[in-house]
Design a protein that fits this description.
This protein is of the alpha+beta class and about 325 residues long. It has 4 helices and 18 strands. The longest helix has about 35 residues, at about 5-40.
Length: about 325
C-alpha cells in the first residue's frame, strides 16, 4: 500500500479536528441548556422587609416569552423602550414593578379650624342667623385631609366650607413627590437582586413607606456568537502528519469569533489565526485553531485560559496536528 500524500494527511487531520470541534460544541450546548433550566427552577427569591423601609423584591428568572407577557400584563409597551436602548447598544434585561396599597380611612368629624368671616352678613342671612345653631354662617369650616402610612398622617390636602356662598367648598390637594429607588445587585453568576425604597415628600417632610408587593422578573441571559477579535498567546504540542516526529510550538494568534455571555470572557473562541515556531524543526509557521474552550469556570484563580486543537504548517510544508493552551492578552 502506497504512502498517503501530505495533502491527504492534511485533509484527514482537518476532518479529525472538525469532528472533535463539533463534539465539543454539542457538549457545550447541552451543558448550557441544562444550566439554564436548573437556574430557572432554583433561582426564586422571596420578598423580604428590611430596616428603614427597604424591601428586597421577590425575583426569579423567566423565559423571553414570560418576560414579554409580564410586561404586557403591566400595560408596558417594550418596543419603544427597545428602540431607545438600541441607540446605546443595550437591551431590555428585566422588568420591575412595585405595588403600594394605602390603608385609607373614613371618618365623621368636626372642623379642624375655622377662619373668621371677612364680609358682613346680608339682611337675609341675619334673619336666619338664629337658626344657625352650629355657626356655619359665621366662619369657614376647614378640614385637613391626611393619608395614614406606617402609623403617620401624611398631609394630602384640605377642604374648606363657607355656608353663605353659592359654591361653598374650596378643596386643595397638596403637591406631593413620590420617590421609588431601585438598587440592582448582581452575583458572580450574573444573577440580579433588586432592593426598593419608596418615600413620599409632603411639604418639607419626607415619609418612608413600607412596600406591600415588590417583584422583579428577569430574562435568563443567553450566550451569543460574536465577531470579536482577541489576541492570544499559547503553546501547542502534537505530532506531524507529513513526517515522523513530535513538535512543541509556542504561538501568537488572533481568534476572530467568540461565543459566550460576554465579549471579554467568552466560553468559546473560533478561527484562531497566527504564527508559531516549531521548536524541534526550528522553523516558523502558520497556525490555525478552529475552536478553543475556556476552562476558567472549572479552575479557580484564572479567567481567560483556553484549550483546543490546532493545525500548523511550517516553512518547509510540514503539517502537524497539535493540542494546546492559550491565554488572552
Amino acid at each position: 500500500m502506497s504512502e498517503l500524500s501530505w495533502k491527504t494527511k492534511v485533509y484527514i487531520g482537518a476532518a479529525v479536528v472538525a469532528v472533535i470541534s463539533c463534539l465539543l460544541l454539542i457538549i457545550k450546548w447541552q451543558h448550557d441548556l441544562i444550566q439554564k433550566q436548573n437556574a430557572m427552577q432554583t433561582s426564586f427569591v422571596e420578598q423580604k422587609q428590611l430596616a428603614d423601609g427597604v424591601t428586597r423584591a421577590q425575583s426569579g428568572y423567566a423565559t423571553k416569552d414570560d418576560l414579554n407577557k409580564f410586561a404586557k400584563d403591566l400595560d408596558i409597551k417594550l418596543d419603544p423602550i427597545k428602540k431607545d436602548l438600541n441607540e446605546f447598544g443595550a437591551k431590555v434585561q428585566g422588568v420591575s414593578t412595585v405595588r403600594i396599597v394605602t390603608e385609607g380611612s373614613k371618618v365623621s368629624k368636626a372642623s379642624d379650624t375655622t377662619a373668621a368671616r371677612v364680609d358682613p352678613p346680608t339682611p337675609n342671612e341675619l334673619a336666619i342667623e338664629n337658626k344657625d345653631q352650629y355657626g356655619y354662617f359665621k366662619a369657614t369650616q376647614i378640614v385637613k385631609l391626611n393619608e395614614p402610612f406606617n402609623g403617620e398622617a401624611v398631609p394630602f390636602g384640605e377642604a374648606k366650607f363657607s355656608a353663605w356662598r353659592q359654591k361653598p367648598w374650596d378643596i386643595e390637594i397638596y403637591k406631593r413627590q413620590y420617590s421609588i429607588v431601585n438598587v440592582l445587585g448582581v452575583d458572580e453568576n450574573g444573577k440580579h437582586y433588586v432592593y426598593n425604597k419608596f418615600s413620599i415628600v409632603a411639604g418639607d417632610k419626607k415619609y418612608d413607606v413600607n412596600i406591600t408587593d415588590s417583584k422583579f422578573v428577569e430574562e435568563y441571559p443567553d450566550s451569543k456568537f460574536r465577531f470579536s477579535p482577541h489576541l492570544y498567546l499559547g503553546v501547542d504540542a502534537g505530532a506531524y502528519v507529513t513526517r515522523v516526529g513530535f513538535e512543541v510550538s509556542p504561538n501568537l494568534q488572533v481568534a476572530l469569533f467568540s461565543y459566550g455571555l460576554t465579549t471579554n470572557l467568552p466560553d468559546w473562541t473560533f478561527l484562531g489565526l497566527g504564527f508559531d515556531y516549531a521548536t524541534q524543526q526550528q522553523r516558523l509557521g502558520l497556525i490555525l485553531s478552529p475552536v478553543n474552550y475556556n476552562i476558567a469556570k472549572h479552575i479557580p484563580l484564572i479567567d481567560n485560559t483556553y484549550i483546543g486543537p490546532s493545525i500548523s504548517l511550517d516553512t518547509d510544508k510540514n503539517v502537524s496536528l497539535l493540542f494546546g493552551i492559550r491565554v488572552g492578552l
